[in-house]
Amino acid sequence: MNILYQLNDDDCFFPPAERANSEGLLAFGGDLSPQRLIVAYANGIFPWYSEDEPLLWWSLDPRLIIRPGEMRVSKSLKRTLKAEKFEVRIDTNFREVMLHCAETPRKDQDGTWIQDEMVDAYCELHELGIAHSFEAYQDDTLVGGLYGIAIGQVFFGESMFHTVTDASKVAFYHLHRFLQEHDFKLIDCQQETSHLMSLGAYTISRKEFLDELKILTIEPTLVGNWGLGKIEPMYLNIQQPEKLHFRAYNMDEDTALSDD
Fold first, then answer.
1. What residue ranges do the domains of the chain occupy?
2. What is the pTM of this model?
């Protein structure tokens, strides 16, 4: 049965990610408040929707990941790194990285899922020291980068862009090295792309992914500005009640169900 859940407005909790349908769609509604986003990511769920759609929440199966220490560095990328073609900065231009990601054309994708309200929401997480950007510059011009969210020992990558060859790969290399140095265990890449798989990413089952999150996201989160080094470990509130109630809909028959 193809079931879609409606989130409650008076809390920030979610149905179990395992209840997502075959495409990975789990729920709709709610908001993009910092606490809801933190709870979502810690439980293997993320927002993804177009301008003409309601706020949709997903948990994909399988899930694309890479572990710190497993990045594949090609010979050409090694040459680029050795030549120091790019200056890499951390957490200095978060909003611009998001805007560039939103404007970058994607294969088989019409428009962008990075809406204005999403930019504002993730920038708020950045101000709280939970969302971070890695940025590549040439002649002081932003030419590549990525952004994502850190919870516990997991970095949840959201999007990346480049306007100069290898710029995003160099940003990813510096992210990967930073995460290694700070004992992160997992990088979530969400869904398969040839770009990320060329860097060593691979898929695991959603069950395996969620099992790891239960262990890794309860560890202290490295909160603050990573570029300035003004950071401190902090425990985030990510726990959900054991029993949750949501309005549910059978999408095959367009009928409402009761969820016990």
1. 3-61+241-257, 64-234
2. 0.95
